[in-house]
Amino acid sequence: xxxxxxxxxxxxxxxxxxxxxxxxxxxxxxxxxxxxxxxxxxxxxxxxxxxxxxxxxxxxxxxxxxxxxxxxxxxxxxxxxxxxxxxxxxxxxxxxxxxxxxxxxxxxxxxxxxxxxxxxxxxxxxxxxxxxxxxxxxxxxxxxxxxxxxxxxxxxxxxxxxxxxxxxxxxxxxxxxxxxxxxxxxxxxxxxxxxxxxxxxxxxxxxxxxxxxxxxxxxxxxxxxxxxxxxxxxxxxxxxxxxxxxxxxxxxxxxxxxxxxxxxxxxxxxxxxxxxxxxxxxxxxxxxxxxxxxxxxxxxxxxxxxxxxxxxxxxxxxxxxxxxxxxxxxxxxxxxxxxxxxxxxxxxxxxxxxxx
Length: 356
Known about the structure:
Number of helices: 16
Number of strands: 7
Oligomer: single chain
Radius of gyration: 30 Å
Number of domains: 3
Structural class: alpha/beta
């Protein structure tokens, strides 16, 4: 980072409207490595006064900022490390001011066009994420602008899931789909390179998840129960009440969109007979279908591993997207050979005119 880049960032921050309750902007710059000590006198800021901090002028600076001049913008530059709080006579002033840094986090911010110094700690926590070229490229593909802490968090989460857009609804969908894959590698990536706390904070903000236990399983339960409560005429059981979200409309929209969401490359089980069985029948070949109600994916995976060890031949496992509502009578009926599939006003499943 050169002096011109430093000047540009600083002036943009000094041009900002002071935060509520403040009349001006004060920026502290602790240049611990002394990188700019020889150039600092050439830093002519258009909208702030430069003061170089030393061991001999601390009390003068405190008097200047707190008594003599309460209106002007100031850059306080020190070619030393920031002192410990107990040794910092300007600590109270620093608390309500901004800090400027020239470390790697700031270089990343500069590359992404982020000018808000207050975001430095946000980028600093994601240094491990940005150390990977592919993740960095994916982040920039979202064309981030006017970055805020929330936008950075969502873009990191989206990049870890290799999502086409930085959208938190898509992030949550990706997390939930990951639960069907035995080992949720997406959550593992968030733990390793993202910020799980940021994920749960966003879940609370968007969907009202306030349960003490941060559990994907309980998040799913909350979303489904809240969605169910919208159409259910009867009162919910008392044991379900704790799972009702105060952000009901957001949960309902999410679940509705999710049920209409197609997983790339995956078929619906409503087409099971046509896609998997019909060809055998046309060729007059024998084929057996065993329908097991509520056989969980991980249980099926264990069965596959057992069969591959003990039976001659090979077995494979895959999943299909189910119908909604995802109850037995709807799901099993969708597997049948048919010309038509209908639902009556009494919630009866009708296949080729016959009540199943």
